[in-house]
Amino acid sequence: MDGSVSKPSWTHKLMKDHELLCSKIREEADELCRTLESNEGKDRTASEMADVLYHSMVLLAVQDVKLEDVLEILRKRFTQSGIEEKSSRK
Ligand SMILES: N=c1c2ncn([C@@H]3O[C@H](COP(=O)(O)OP(=O)(O)OP(=O)(O)O)[C@@H](O)[C@H]3O)c2ncn1[C@@H]1O[C@H](COP(=O)(O)O)[C@@H](O)[C@H]1O
Q1: pTM as predicted
Q2: How many whole angstroms separate alpha carbon 28 and alpha carbon 50?
Q3: Is 51 in the pocket of ligand 1 (CB under 6 A)?
C-alpha cells in the first residue's frame, strides 16, 4: 500500500449509472439548444457543445462504440443529402 487516495471520477460515476448518464446527455443537449434560442454567444455554445460531446463519448465507451465508427458513418453520408436519405427510407 502506498497510502495514495484515488480521486473521485465523474467519468466512472457516469459509466456505472446509466440513468444519470442519459439524464446528463439530455440536460446538456437542452442547454446547448438554449444557447441558440437565447443568443448566449459563441463561447457559451462551444462550452455547452463540449459538455454534450464529453457525455456522449462516455455513452459510446459504455457500449464499446468507437468514435472512429461514428465518423465513418458521417463520412459515408457525405455523398447524399439528408433529405434524399430520409425519402429513400419511406
Ligand atoms: N471533459 C470532461 C468533462 N466535461 C464536463 N465534465 C463534468 O461534467 C459535470 C457536469 O455537471 P453539471 O451539469 O452539474 O455541471 P455544469 O454543466 O458545469 O453546470 P451548469 O451548466 O448547470 O452550470 C461537471 O462535474 C463537469 O466537471 C467533465 N468531466 C470530465 N471530463 C474529462 O474526463 C477526464 C477525467 O475526469 P474524471 O472522470 O472526473 O476523473 C477529465 O480530465 C476531462 O478530460
Answers
A1: 0.87
A2: 9
A3: yes
